[in-house]
Records
---
Amino acid sequence: FGGVEKEPSMHIVHVAVEMAPIAKVGGLGDVVTGLSRAVQDMNHNVDIILPKYDCITLSNVRDLQFHKSYSWAGTEIKVWSGKVEGLNVYYLEPQNGLFWVGCIYGHRNDRDRFGFFSHAALEFLVQSGLDPDIIHCHDWCTAPVSWLFKEHYMHHGLSKANVVFTIHNLEFGADLIGKAMAFSDKVTTVSPTYSQEVSGNPIIAPHGSKFHGILNGINADIWDPYNDEFIPVSYTSENVVEGKRAAKEALQQRLGLKRADLPLVGIITRLTHQKGIDLIKHAIWRTLECNGQVVLLGTAPDPRIQNDFVNLANQLHSSHNDLARLCLTYDEPLSHLIYAGSDFILVPSIFEPCGLTQLTAMRYGSIPVVRKTGGLRDTVFDVDHDKERAEALGVETNGFNFNGADADGVDYGLNRAISAWYDKREWFNSLSKRIMEQDWSWNRPALDYLELYRAARK
Ligand code: ADP
């Protein structure tokens, strides 16, 4: 419309060590793909630079081809190109074998491997004349991009660019993250509340003025109950009750649970301190006391914790065989069926930078019951207590939350949730329909990132 100037399109290059679905370990991989897709759909030009690991899932790469090769730091680096989810990706393959080790992380020289990659990526940008507007790097692994750029490359061949750095997890590589904060034009983390929670951290505090929280979104193509091969009946908010009933039956049948006439609480998580292990255990027993069923899907990287849950599973499977199932594996198809077949998804995290499971739950019409921390606070608005806070942000209330990181906290959330299922079924069903209609995709966060990119260029 007259008077509104069209924003010029930007060229953004992500330098990252994960990308879903070809090289994914956690949320970082999802963000790189989801954000890039959304920004590209808004008519900007996006490229991704990734190491060419020997463990990349090549079946998800289209038109893989040799692009060029260059010498750097005494080794030849072969560059490949190929599309992933419609995105242009360059894969760097140094012939010194740094990425031929069968895994993404977990090598004793990870710092050297990713330091080398960060440097090689900037070198590739110069050698190929790409000259982007924004170089976006992520977590400690590609933190070196920020200072290598400011100390060298911005004076030698990449004159146009500004650097944006995103912190997905502050727990690893704090020294590198601190340095990247100093050398980046803008720094983000993955939710506004988490950004406030960590703002006093001595790594973050000195750079507060360029630090922003932007929520993650979920990939609405992958998580779509209308088009999901892992659930029995496709559904939208229009037939959510029927769709979820069929999914619940299929889930119960698959796991050998009986009694469809009970509320089902689902938990899908890494079993680590961050995720509130003691609260999860308490919630399982509390749900059973409240006449509910529980399905947990999760794995513990720490073998002691895994073993602890194996014992709990054995105990529950003998005392409450019809009512509780703990699946201590990683199983993506099963996770889809749990999101669809549960009445509630419980997320009692001690801290949570953003959290994706509560967003996916809502997409499938499952009511989130969460601890009010980090990104969980920014996305789940309590039906009893957060009406004003939700209205101020233009969303409707959508779940149950609790503050305390203790048994009383969990009980407060769960009791209200389960009572609503028993006593106010019609209201409960309308809530389920309403949350399915909320938009937790990348549409909105991508606009926030574009605004940040523009601000970085001023
Ligand atoms: P984090 O990245 O801290 O683990 P998020 O909530 O951001 O937590 O993302 C977790 C993602 O991993 C979600 O998509 C969830 O569905 C998935 N997930 C976690 N555990 C499992 C599991 N055992 N099997 C399948 N998917 C899982």
---
Amino acid sequence: LVSRENHAERSVVRVGGVPIGPGTMTLIAGPCAVETPEQTLGAAQMAQAAGATLLRGGAFKPRTSPYAFQGLGEAGLRILADVRAETGMPIVTEVVDAGDVELVASYADMLQIGTRNAQNFALLQAAGESGKPVMLKRGMNGTVEEWLMAAEYVAQRGNLDIVLCERGIRTFETATRNTLDISAVPVAQRLSHLPVIVDPSHSGGSRDLVLPLTRAGIAVGADGVIIDVHPHPETALCDGPQALVDGDLRELAKLVRDLPPLV
Ligand code: PEP
């Protein structure tokens, strides 16, 4: 279903009216985690000023440590919905458990499935039945084939509104959190008709890598980027060191504004 074999044209997925796919370079940005109404609105306004048309933000956070901030849950979803009402930005937010899909889908414009759940087949199937577009991150240890088969689980349930997200894979290299596999972008676009975006924030894990990796993603033809921003990253409850602040955002805005016309 997601293969290009029976679907020669590349697809455009619409999220609350915002297109992701060929001919666009969609900027999705917002806080890694929803913490407070002020922090989420502040991040959304920064993102919007930089040209972002979709708001990201996690209310359910899949953290490596059970002692780390796990997200606000439904209270976080309510904050996202309020910020959408204020800014007009449709929401992309993660769901980590099949049992929460209905709840998250009742607030979200797009469901995000994270790298740690890339082969959680029950979750993929539930997302496929949610009626909402799905952003499917590549498993940090997953091959492109496994990623596309995960997308197939969503598609099999009647949902072809899927966006693939390359977010870095585990390699021997420890200088970056993960290695952004930029070659996976054209490979996935050759094998699948689905849009492919990159996440330079979670792959590099560091603010100074976000712009260079964004440029790399654009250069290889990514259909969009998803980026963490935070009004006060020094106090962030999750992934502060990778969040962009105002100065970086001005550069990001320029980068997106000056893009040549995409075909
Ligand atoms: C995220 O985008 O909030 C996230 C946790 O990403 P990943 O699943 O890629 O680690």
---
Amino acid sequence: MPVYSQVVMDHFMRPRNVGEIENADGIGEVGNPVCGDMMTFYIKVENDVITDVKFKTFGCGAAIAVSSMASEMAKGLTLEEALKMTPASVAAKLEGLPQNKFHCSNLGAQALRKAIEDYLVKQGRMDKKDVTPEEDEHAACETEEGKEA
Ligand code: FES
């Protein structure tokens, strides 16, 4: 049975920023092909700063904690700063995840990046063809999954 940090348990039991933003500026939805879990991030942006974040996650406890932490970390960041968020940085803020749950941390940073890219495309500041392909997103996920074997 995996052992979770107090921070993970806190964010799992009392997730922050659950829900949906009406008229969100950007929406990012990702799924984990390994387990079938889904995560959607909604962002509000003002002057290239993320002013609000909400999420809906259908997934395991680790994925819920990751969503909650990633949403907290993203608030107040510039788009450029938020794009630097990685699964490892979210997992570190959660004081770690058991190795066999580390793949769950991929979804948070991916969903956030998708929401930002959706915003930039809507703004005409990014070409749709430059949006991060799904295969690249899942490559990391599968790699982490592979480590479990
Ligand atoms: Fe699916 Fe955690 S088991 S994201």
---
Amino acid sequence: SFPADKRSRPTARTSAGARAKASAPFDPFQAELTTMPVAQPVKATKTLEQYQITMRPGTADILAGQPTPILGYDGRFPGPTIHATRGREVQVTQSNQAGRNLVVHLHGGVTEHASDGHPMDIVGAGTQRVYRYANVQRGATLWYHDHSHGEVAQTLYAGLAGFYIVNDPYEDALELPRGEYDVPLMIQDRSFNADGSFRYQLDLDMGFHGDTILVNGAIAPRMKVERRLYRLRLLNASNARVYGLVLGDRRETLQIAADGGLLPRPVKRTLIPLNPAERIDVVVDFRQFGAGTEVILHNPSGEATTQAVMRFDVVKGGAEEAQVPKLLSELETLPPVNAARKFVLSFQSAGTAMWQINGQGYDMNRIDCRPRLGTTELWTFVNNSPHPHPMHLHLAHFLIRSVDGRPPGPADASWKDVVAVQPGSTVVVRPYFDYYTGVFPFHCHTAEHGDNNMMGQMEVEE
Ligand code: C2O
Ligand code: CU
């Protein structure tokens, strides 16, 4: 039972799109998987790489002969992939030609306040600003996306998302698959109007759920893979959909990394849960399949049209040099816990309906907690609502301490920046405030929840 959340209000459904004629769902595996263009620095030295990106409208070729209008980084959907290197600064000049105010957040980035992409810290329409990323953190699959206050559901849906991959000399020394065998896969759901445009329908409770799955901007595509090892960097860049990914007839994959980079050891997975904003890197050994095999990555728990995610078409491969070491990384020893805090997640239906943390909606002038730099804390999330909340902290990565009193499984026992808190459940995490001081938000990453006030602020102090 959810005492704090009894309500009978019907689900909010607004938007002109909801009334427009929708097109039928599409056949999967028609399109070839594409990879996003790799952003090229305009200037690079040993210590600094500078990029120039323009946020602007564009079109995407998703449906045959019917361009889909999008809003994208460099006008692309998805945006270009930025490859950064640990210890080498990246500066991205983001120029806003989108005709509206925007904010760029590097999700999972250990970023100083001025470049974090705080929801109120806008790049005004027609202006530009330089975001600085020191890349002090270890290797990890990050992503950048819009963070406009109250409008992420629209801007993310319109296309403002791209990968940002931190390469790490330590990781390079391992013999993991690399180059063309290291594949970023951005998974999103969309619906379409009959004219080919994205169809959006506000659902304040569940968040948006589309009827079609896209990977790297193509409808359930197919990809030729050689009989060898591949690293797949899975990112759920959907507004709200939760995936439970299965390869073929429940084949084993090896998870090697989570949000914050390499796990201590690889973990066998036959079901890969992927909550909004989460990243999971798996290595798949396609040598277990004969040439000519078609292996489907699917989402069995989805509705009928959202079960096919993509297909791997296995072809012959050359000699394999990559391997997955038994030991991937080591967790550092952490400073002791300095404070314990509790955050109750609930829905407020009286008056203006909104999602709340500790009975309050987001207020940019309120600081909810003041962690001290160089310490760890215990944060307890209690979900008193009937929907899951993928809770995300800017700046600080955390370890999951417990889920309903039990320690996490091995795949969740390393650095994370998103944790799903299920209805009625209690999750304790241990963030480490190890790099920067300043004001940073924490929020639910279901875009429609974060937009509707499910956000707080911490100020990390000296
Ligand atoms: Cu990916 Cu504040 O979010
Ligand atoms: Cu939520």
